[in-house]
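for ur thesis appendix - DndE family protein. copy paste whatever u need, i formatted it the way the template wanted (i think)
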Amino acid sequence: MIRTTQETENFISPLSKMLNLENEPKWVVLRFMLNISLSLQREFESLHVENFDGKEYRLEQLTGEGKGADDHTKLYWDMVEAYDGITITSKKELEENLQKHILRGCLILKTSLKHDSNIFEFIGQDF
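the 3d part is after this line
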């Protein structure tokens, strides 16, 4: 299971509005946070979290595990290994790293955007 913090859960709705994804499942926005984290080489202080007090998501939801052509688990596995310079040896370890990157992506977005920011300008500037 991939767990979130309540802070991350609280940011899903405003972010989904910025992205015009209000009618999409939460995992779509979480995947966006994950992709932001894996796309930006920004330094962030340690992301040690004592209490993941939000919700739990399955790999099936976040990476499409077991969904044939929509299964991106191996891709995310490889991206996390390359980004962090590590070797992941289990699904549990993958889930822990995805959890960390979702939190990191959330923090990047929360500190970079205001409620009236144009997220598409932000994406254009950083990419």
